[in-house]
Amino acid sequence: MATALDFIEFVCERIADVGSVRHKKMFGEYMVYVNDKPILLVCDNTVYVKMLPQLSEIMSQSERGVPYSGAKEHYVLDIENEDLAREAVRILESVTPFPKKRVKKQ
């Protein structure tokens, strides 16, 4: 089951005050970018975040899951918990590097 467009829009609305938020469809699912950094992975209407040490304290009680076959385990972010979602996104935005520019092959 792919992520519904209304769900991804809801996710973006929940974190809109933490920076410039946009989403991009990738392989039938979505990546949410904050200030042009890839922050949230949304698959099957579930929000995933990388299991980084900086999140271990605030996400210690969160579920864990695998967003797609072959992926590493991620925290499942409760997007309904606005305070937790915003705090996790703020932390992730501060430690996530900008994606590297890809050189197109000719």
Shape: globular
Number of helices: 2
CA-to-CA gap between the ends? 35 Å
Coarse structural class: alpha+beta
Q: Tell how many strands the DSSP assignment holds.
A: 6
Percentage of residues in helical conformation: 10-25%
Strands of the widest sheet, in order across it, are 1-2-3-4-6-5
Rounded Rg: 13 Å
Biggest sheet descriptor: 6 strands, antiparallel
Strand content range:
25-35%
Average of the residue pLDDT scores: 93
Low-confidence stretches: none
Helix-strand topology string: HEEEEEEH
Description:
The chain is α+β, with helices and mostly antiparallel strands. It is built from 2 helices and 6 strands; from the N terminus they run H-E-E-E-E-E-E-H. The protein has helices at 5-14, 82-95, and strands spanning 21-26, 29-34, 37-43, 46-49, 64-65, 74-76. The protein has a 6-stranded antiparallel sheet with strand order 1-2-3-4-6-5. Strand 3 (37-43) and strand 4 form a beta hairpin.
Keywords:
106 residues; globular; 6 strands; alpha+beta; single chain; six-stranded antiparallel beta sheet
Write the layout of secondary structure elements.
Layout (H helix, E strand, L loop, with lengths): L4 H10 L6 E6 L2 E6 L2 E7 L2 E4 L14 E2 L8 E3 L5 H14 L11
Antiparallel strand pairs: 1-2, 2-3, 3-4, 4-6, 5-6
